[in-house]
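Schema walkthrough. Field components (list of strings):
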Amino acid sequence: MSTCTVLLVDDEAEFIDTLGKRLARRGLEVHLAHSGQEALDVVAAQELDVVVLDVKMPGMDGIEALQKIKALKPDLEVLMLTAHANVEVAMRGMELGAFDYLMKPVELDELLYKIQDANKKKCLIA
Amino acid sequence: MFTRLKTIFSSLLGGDGRGQGLSDEDILAEFRKRYHNFRLLLTANKKTLGIMSEMEQALRGQFVFGMSFVRSQATAASVNVFRIVKHLSEIAPGKYDSLFERLKDIQAQIAAVLDRQPHSEATELTLPLEAVGRETSDQVGSKMANLGDIMTRVGLPVPPGFAITSLAYYRFMNDTGLQDEINRLIQVVGSDDQAKLLPLCSQIQQMIVSAELPQSVADAITSAYKDLEAKTMPAVHVSMRSSALGEDALGQSFAGQFRSVLGVSPEDLLIAYKEIVASKYSPQAVTYRLAKGIPSEDVAMCVGCMAMIHARSGGVAYSRNPLSIRDDEVYIHSAWGLAKTVVDGAVSSDLFVVRRGDPPALVESHISLKDRLFVCDPVAGVCRNEEAGPLAGQPSLTDEEALELGRIAIALDKAYGEPLDIEWAMDESRRIFLLQCRPLQQMEAGRAERPESQFGKPLMSGGVTGSPGIAAGKVHPVRRDMDMLTFPEGGVLLCSEALPRWATLLGKASAVVSERGSSAGHLANVAREFGVPAIMGLTNAVAALSDKGVVTVDADGLGIYAGRVEALLALAPPRDTDQALHSPMHAILREVLDHIAPLSMLDPTAQEFAPENCKTLHDITRFCHEKSVVEMFRFGQDFHFSKRASKQLKYRVPMKWFFVNLDDGFVSDVKGKYVTMEQIACDPVHALWEGFVAVPWKGPPPVDAAGFMHIVAHSTVNRNIAHVDDEYAQGNYFMISNHYMCLSSRFGYHFCTVEALVDERENENYVSFQFKGGAAELDRRMRRARFVAEVLENYSFQVEMQGDEMRAMYAKGPMDVMLDRLRVVGYLLMHTRQIDMVMTNDALVNHYRQRFATEIGDILRESGEKHMSQVMREMA
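Field assembly_structure (string):
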């Protein structure tokens, strides 16, 4: 399987540290960001395949970050991964072009499949 | 073949594919993109159906769930249906965009149900007890409302005090963002197992206790306390009790679920308030709400604050016998010290029985050994357990005092017109005060006399019935919180003290045996609500029973027997399990599901099969699935693209089986019009085919030489098809890749689909089979659908029925298991033709049932053997 570069964005450092390690063990190249702003910096500086983005973060929230990421790189796929189960917020994210809206806790395999699916799509458009 | 449709499609694209000067590579790239979207659509489709079926299971009461389940399932369903629509719009650009609008409308309706926040009726943050009555129960909770009412309307003594309202609660929880944070934690951690529940609850409770109260709330409490001081004495100590909103609704007593704090000094008022609010998230309260289906949001924690009574003795009075609906005598439980001594089940209590009459009479009194008591020091405010000393064996009430309590209970029962559970205290000057009063649920069952040795010799006998019934299970002694973590499903809870916190185990326990406590304690109360048999006050039970393994607890006959005594268990009344199905939580889920699950779009050939008629998420899902298949199938034709055009299967003769290769479904490029089975490189199709041809069809009616030409859907001699002008409406249409197949088959009004994904991602594998229709009248068609469903269920398919439509799904599993499921479906496709005609003949149905079982068994055995010998060959 070709390498896939992902950016994990969540203000819960412990959560993405662990998740990042587990994904790296499965062969992904992982970058971490702890806020929306930090994420935008990485997106601008790095070639990425998929962003995994939390919704509720202090400062810039996930929806705003999604909007800015899509403005910066329209083809970059963004997966929302959140503990915030809210139909309206989820729909807003989907309308803004999120690839999917997943709810914590998510099984590692399921997340991995989603990342693969999102990645394949991006390759197709390119 | 598709001329009419092609015209429509081409005009949408602005001309025919070739006309736009697209090269074969362009078309192939275009096809790949659509195929990718098609695949994602299918994943989302399967996910959506899975979510819906899980929600329906929850509704049928197959597991307990809370608001976070409803919210996250509804969100996930919405997201996946959005994806389905989006992928369809990529497959057929611009054609179905109106679906986005429909989806938005439906989602708004779902969101409206979920966002219906309970709001406070209260306009004040606190209310003095004199201003509280039954009409204010939605501001202060029914517990305080009742007390206010007793004081002002009935005119019986209640300690002076005030209530902190639901408005204060909502300000504290919502305005500070606490509630959002709590919901988030519950969703992430999940509250479904004890090991996770305990740390989760402690984290949430700490969060609440350490949060800052809004200034307005703190000020209001302080000021209400100053007024209370003015009415009583400076620095008066108070008791603070939960008075949750919705507590008494639907017979939910919430007995002992929340905290009470006694002997609170003025400087501790605010912290005690927060502790009580936090007790909404105690493990026993959370488990209780889950089991009873009460949404957390519906419980607003109001708090009652009353001047402390320095109790000489205290306890509980039932205005009628809680354990027998036919007994109207007053039962008074009493112990030394505060009423808490009785309520917490820490000691056995004295029991006085007062018979109604003119005048009422004391007819029974049982004096127990009350070796401990609970007191609060009037000056220091410290509350503690003490040895009772010489008082232990003496009655805690005089006969006259017991009679007086009896008269009070009868008066209250009369005033409210219902049985009541009354907590009382008597101070040193022997004045009686009422501390709490709530409706009492009486039970049907009563005491049973067991003739001696009818069920053998019991291991132990005695105690009192805390909750009636008979049950068996493995004894599990519970001494500390640690023991709760290891408590097994169906265990017998064995404890020394009947502590309220053991109530969190009652969802799991089959029975309760406690050395202390009485039927008046919280644990017994909750056991009755859960229908768990309980024996209380059985001295030395812990030592005698701890190592006895499985026992049968007879709470009616007050005996405990070794092992499972089936003859005794057979006497137990059936447990009422559907009570939870009418809970508020279920009502919310049902309302949400109304916008999600019902399927009205059944017939794809009907005029009504259109985006504007989609009423639910399921309708949209169904519509999109149907259209995506059609659109994918047309692609090759519309683009005059032979590589992706359909090929007709040749098996001896050309058959009405058409294949479109989505990706890698053929072993090589297939030239010309026909394809053979050998050229197909799709495992699921081969498995389906094996099942299909394994056993020749024996009729009825007898099949002719060209039997196989009869396509699957041609199973019925359907004479009422008149207007089938679309050729796509007749035949079996396969879309395949190496690991995936989708079969749509129809003949006029009869249609069926088989879809399967079988590859290395075991978790994503599935086989789904749906069919509807037939030639016979509806009743027979329904019988056949049920018959087929029954066969599929024998092979562990999940089956849902709606009229003559059947939907079966088998999800997750290794490849060989999935392929076997396809063989079963293949067999059914061949052999269920026309059996709708004989469905009313029971003997024939039975005959078919047996034949199917034998023949399918043979097919699977054969394929299993083939598989094994192949594995052996590979290993050799």
